[in-house]
Predict the structure.
Amino acid sequence: MDLKQAIEEESLEKKIEKLAKFFKQAIKKGNLEKKIEKFVRFFPLSVFIKDLKGREVLSLLNSNKDCGYHYPIVLNGCTVGTLYVSENSISSEYIIELINDVLEKEQQIADINNETLSLYKEINLFYDLSAIINKQQNLGKRLECLLDRCVVYNKADNASIWIIDEDVLKCICYKGTKPVRTFNVGEGFIGMIAKTGGEEMLSCPVDDKRWIGEINQKKSIICKSLCAGDKTIGILNVSMIRGAPFTAKNLKFVNIFAHLASQELEINRLFTGIKRETVRRTNLARFLSPNIVDKFADQENGVALGGKNQVVSILFADIVNFTGIAEQLGSDVIVSMLNEYFTIMTEIIFMCEGTLDKFIGDSIMAIFGAPNMIDSHAVSAVRAGLLMQQASKEIYEKSNNGGESLFKIRIGINTGMVTVGNIGSPNKLDYTAIGDNVNIASRIESSAGPGTVLIGGATNELVKDVFKTKKLDPVFVKGKDNALDVYEVIDGI
Amino acid sequence: MSVKILIIEDEIHIRRLIMQTVELSFDELIDNDELEIYEADNGEDGVSIAKEERPGLIFSDIMMPKMDGYDACKIIKEDPALQGVYVVLLTAKGQKVDQKLGMEIGADEYMTKPFDPDNIVIVIENVLKINRSN
């Protein structure tokens, strides 16, 4: 007897055993006894059923009648028991028919129940899987969980996830035996799946021409590519050494596990990207206004040179007698104070929706109304100016134990048409505003008294309903023939 | 002596699922009449079968017609003739379960639907072990 024949005989023996067990249960569940009992009430017969082991399954004996006739009970081509009856007549034929009907019906029920159980197991698998994966915090643990379930549900021995890193397949997570080597994309069976994509199931991998794995004879293997969109990013490899070879159902399961693994890898890639981008943006925000970071960070075609004419409000702030204060306080104190000053002033500008244009020595230039257009740019600029004056007093008082403030700033604001945009060279751009109205803002600031906010006529027109202002004598500024109307902002109305 | 399992559940497919799981995993015991399965589709019938057959293990749903799982469990656990019966209450996911009440009336375990059929097998194996050691 060869091996194949032995296996076939073994499986036939198991099949008969299984059917015999089913037969016994089906007789019980199908209420055959009651059905026969009803029949023999009208047609007196002795009926006796034995299973394959000779055990009694059903007995309805009529004392006057011996069970002299016997018939094999056949289910799916296999004899599973014997029927003994007292007559060889149409009545015994009816009993056989009754048995067959019960067995057929119970087999149908069993098939449906098996299918339902199988589907229920699948539902539970994914219910369980999603709950377990979501509990894990990092990618490694999530993939481990996934492989763990993949091995259990496929009754596999090994499962591993490999990712493509510069044309080399590297194992990043495994369950079972640790893979001992890497594979180039296109090399060996798994390398070919990584190259061509898709999935493949081999029932005897060592016979496959592409197989260059270990000597370890795997009985069955399923390999499925992991994808991000159309791109193959790795593979999921599931194998078994013992047990029955994988089936189409296993292939379906592995496909689902591979999709989940692909999603986990993709989510992790995107999440890492978002984290990196957030750090970049946070770092950029230390050098640029959030308005500028937001506006230009998402421009897919890069940031272009150029500008446009727009009405904005320009704010200049300057420390009065900075050189004198620096000499008086010493370099250590002044550096610390300046850092605090710029930090607080920047925060105020951003809070009032302004854009920090630049620091020029101890001066600050800010734009309100660009790049994000806001209707109330003049009000925002004046509000920022007042808050900056208030903050500058607090900075000095804090460092000077409440003494008289020598640290004063003057602020000038002007509103008008300027050119705003990216100015510089393609390699070094600055978002800034240029034009006559920028120069006027700077001149107004120079004319402001210490601790005051001075605004031009156009600005005053836009804020006079919000802030109390006082008209001062017109001032002559450098480069202008006519005197400029200027107003001092007293406070909010 | 055989071990008897009683399934009290009004949803027929859940009863069938449990029965099928038991039949597939313990076919040898069933074939040798060492394990028997009984079923009821409401708490009232469940209690009556429990008193008659004295099962070693009961899987019982909570929300059922005629008598709910809590009441059925309470009656069964209070019956001296049914001392030692292991009761597993089956709850649907998301269903508000009064765990305190369950503990008070003596339920031994909760199982959430959809349950893992393997967990049914584990519970039965444990009960069989206890039964053998007794």
